[in-house]
């Protein structure tokens, strides 16, 4: 995983790498079947075969056998293959091949609750709220509402509207809540955006009624 516009690190470590002279190796990375991302040709970096979008965006750390992909974008997501060939009696043979899958992460804004209501609130009338978050990636799992009063919290699921920017590929999400205005009790309403098991959740500032 790598954060959007940060450096992604793709590992290609293989056993016995310390015993091999880099001048006897051809190391190249490719994305998918056709795009060459980086090439080290018998100790020298070679740029002839690189896909244009990776030009001047990669560095190979030969001590750690790790490719650094600079300014990683959403279009860089996908599977990368590292292939190492050894020059053995003149003809190269593949001695190592490994793959890694790159996922890009962009932080969502803290969810914000907005009133869709004008005029004075009265008990038992309907309260309309909206919760929104934007600028994130990948697509979130769900958005839910938390309603707390008298030491009890209720979770309410409502439809989540998701849109994706055609240029940046970043997502924006919105959910709406329509509930009865609680009478005679302090109620806190929060909005929770669940991003997935490994990315956790974001919660809004609670709204007190």
UniProtKB/TrEMBL annotation:
Keywords: Cell membrane, Disulfide bond, Glycoprotein, Immunoglobulin domain, Membrane, Receptor, Signal, Transmembrane, Transmembrane helix. It comes from the Eukaryota. One of its GO terms (biological process) is positive regulation of T cell proliferation. GO terms for cellular component: external side of plasma membrane. It is a single-pass type I membrane protein. Residues 1-98, 111-191 form the Ig-like domain. This is T-lymphocyte activation antigen CD86. The keyword Secreted does not apply. It comes from Pterocles gutturalis (yellow-throated sandgrouse). InterPro entries: CD80_C2-set (IPR013162), Ig-like_dom (IPR007110), Ig-like_dom_sf (IPR036179), Ig-like_fold (IPR013783), T-cell_Activation_Regulation (IPR051713).
